[in-house]
Design a protein that fits this description.
single chain, six-stranded parallel beta sheet, alpha/beta
Length: about 180
């Protein structure tokens, strides 16, 4: 059976932004969905979130993994730690490097096993905007694309594609629905 796992970003919930509408869409076309409230969402930490997702998520050849913002590096870490090739991975406003090289971010790995992520990620899509106010922009998308291949979609003027701080409610996400309708 098709299943989808959706991972939210910082200070978010399974009801933030486009998550409810995409969950509804997926369920209407026969997916079983898991949209967890990630632990310590206000300060995402890979040491806490990765074990939670690995222990509670179901990964198989029919799994679609979707993530937004800080859920994206978590999704990449999940792909690196599972031993199953999934169907598809879609990362929205994703990143793998801190904006300031001197910063560290507890959701990021120091290094990624790009080969294993590519092997397990299925069809990989990156959706980034050219004006993301948090720095999860087209440069971050290109960096991941260069390491993993797949499909890079750069949205113009779409910001973070969901942000209370920058008044981007993004309640629906037609592009994401179209990608999920692909076989």
């Amino acid at each position: 059976m098709k299943n989808a796992i959706m991972l939210h970003g910082t200070a978010c919930t399974p009801n933030s932004y486009w998550f409810p509408s995409i969950r509804g869409y997926l369920e209407s076309v026969g997916y079983r969905t898991w949209v967890p409230q990630l632990p310590d969402a206000d300060i995402p930490d890979l040491k806490k979130q990765l074990p939670y997702v690995l222990e509670n998520g179901e990964f198989n050849e029919e799994t679609d993994l979707l993530a937004h913002s800080r859920g994206c590096p978590l999704a990449l870490s999940v792909l690196e730690h599972i031993d199953t090739k999934i169907h598809r991975t879609i990362l929205v406003a994703g990143f793998t490097r801190p904006n300031d090289e001197s910063e560290s971010d507890p959701i990021l790995q120091k290094r990624y096993n790009w080969r294993k992520i590519r092997q397990n990620g299925g069809d990989i899509y990156f959706i980034n905007s050219d004006n993301d106010p948090w720095g999860c922009n087209d440069k971050q998308g290109r960096y991941m694309f260069q390491h993993l291949g797949g499909t890079l979609i750069v949205r113009h003027g779409e910001g973070h594609m969901g942000s209370d701080t920058f008044n981007q409610p993004y309640k629906e996400f037609a592009l994401l629905e179209r990608l999920l309708s692909l076989p």
